[in-house]
Amino acid sequence: MTLSLHHYDCGFYPNSGGEISEGRGNGAGYSVNVPLQRGTNDSSFIHVFSAVANKVLTAFDPEVIVVQCGCDGLAGDPHKIFNLTSNVFARSIKTVLGWERPALLLGGGGYSLPECARCWTRLTAIACGYDIAPEADVPEHVFLNEYAPGFDMLTDVMLIEDSNTNAYLDSIVQAVQAALPNQS
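Above: the chain sequence. Below: its structure as tokens.
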């Protein structure tokens, strides 16, 4: 079973996942694509994730959870598609770990090494039972200057518009819920 919250736009690699779909072939019924618009911020992401993740968990009752934490959605990523902070990743991972199932957290995506390091460090800490405040200082090391100007764990949001409207987000949630197997 795959639940994928991702950006979709014409010409944006891999140019798939543009509609709520349930998979194809042997995967039919085991894939839920959730396309989000340019500028997706923490609020929009959590709105959709909170509304669908537990329903997907209930519908499929997986024995193991694998989470791919693609940091290309972070506000500091040079592609500047989404406007997320590590807070949304942290909240999502805390939710997944709260399901009390074996979980494998994977890094992935992301084209800003300092932003990826900030986020994955925080997620690793959460997986180990700790959290790192976004305002915490980055420890001194050979690449410290890469973390300028704040030298902290914080991902600064960009001044871009979130193209997701509440109506669009609600329509995604409704489509996902309609695609899930009936809960009887």
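The mean pLDDT is 90.
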